Amino acid sequence: MISVQSIRPSATNAWQFYSIMFFGIFIGSWAAILGRFAQAEGISTPVIVASRMGLGTLVLTPIVLRYYLPQLRQMTWRDWVLASFGGFWITGALLGMFYSLEHTTVLITNIIGSTGPIWVALMEKFILRTRLNRMVYIGLVITLVGGISITLAAQNTASIGHNPLLGGGLALASAVMGSIYTIVGRSARDKVPLVPYLWLMNVAGMTVSFALVWGRGDSFLGYSPRGYGAILLLTLTAQLIGHGIHNYVLRRLSATTVAITSQLGTVISLILAFVFFHELPNELQIPGMIAMIVGVTFVNLVRSRPAEHQPSL
User: Per-domain residue ranges for the chain?
Assistant: First the structure.
């Protein structure tokens, strides 16, 4: 049997795994930036999401057909339904995030959207009946205080979008739907390998988003090369490379390390938002944003520890 320690990096090559991890975080931080670039070229949110899911399906299909047909044949109807259900919720999360960008800043969207671990913890408590460490509730309170601070600040400034409350609400809805996707994904991944699951998720998400594009009467044609380039980069970075690296390093580095460093993605996205869009928080928003990042990191830290070391309520 292979021990847990055997898949951890040694001191001589640990820097390689950390380098890969930080590269993945940096790549994933561009999602909202590239989405905003595509929107600036007149591409609607449904077209952005449908293109992202469609390109992801296009890339994964030959891999699945070449290497994973036996696994697909062994899947039950429950496996297919769960994977498709996951695709529905991740599509909803992406739509919420990009619609949020239409109403508020990258800064607000990413800060509120990063609260996913909070909602996963609450769903585990009230839906899956998982016992939570009391420290999770402390992290939740810190995050809520930060969110209230940002909401109050949004009423006193026009610098964070023409409708920051709606944008923040959409970002929150995105975080909740992304959390449902995480819960569904855990159930599906018990039996389905990663690549087939991602492929089925993309196929289901592509079906839903394409139907939305068709229902709205949107078109995939007639946009600028810059707009198409933004969508292509969005798919390659956040959809394929970012998720792939995250799953790769999670098998080789501790969950605690990945949980802490993943919050760097929020910080990097805020820096990129300043560089490209000159977005800056005001003096009332800064404490709230710090509180939200601290609160989410706190929950990640507690939940990534072994269960036997966590006192539960």
Answer: 16-309
Tell me the Cα Rg of the chain: 20
**Residues shown for the chain:** 313
Identify which of 135, 133, 134, 137 has the alpha carbon closest to the alpha carbon of residue 145.
Answer: 137
- Judge whether 136 and 115 are in contact, CB under 8 Å: no
C-alpha 260/C-alpha 249 separation (Å) is: 13
pLDDT tens digits for range 147-199: 777 766 655 554 566 788 899 899 999 999 988 887 887 777 667 787 888 89
Question: How many whole angstroms separate alpha carbon 247 and alpha carbon 244?
Answer: 5
Which tokens sit at 177?
């739907």
Question: Which pair of tokens denotes residue 78?
Answer: 């429950």
Count other Cβ atoms within 10 Å, centred on residue 114: 24
Residues β-bridged to residue 133: 312
Burial class (CB within 10 angstroms; exposed 0-12, middle 13-18, buried 19+) of 283: exposed
Give CA–CA dist 247/61, Å, rounded. 19
- Is 258:250 a contact under the CB 8 Å cutoff? yes
Would you say the C-alpha torsion 8, 11, 16, 18 has a positive or negative sign? positive
The percent helix, strand, coil of the chain (3-state, each to 5) is: 75, 0, 25
User: Collapsing DSSP states into helix, strand and coil, what is residue 133?
Assistant: strand
Query: What pTM, to 2 d.p., does this model score?
Result: 0.82
How would you classify residue 44: left for phi > 0, otherwise alpha for psi between -120 and 50, otherwise beta? beta
- Whether pLDDT at 99 is above 80: yes
Cβ–Cβ contacts within 10 Å for residue 127, how many? 10
Maximal CA-CA distance, the chain: 60
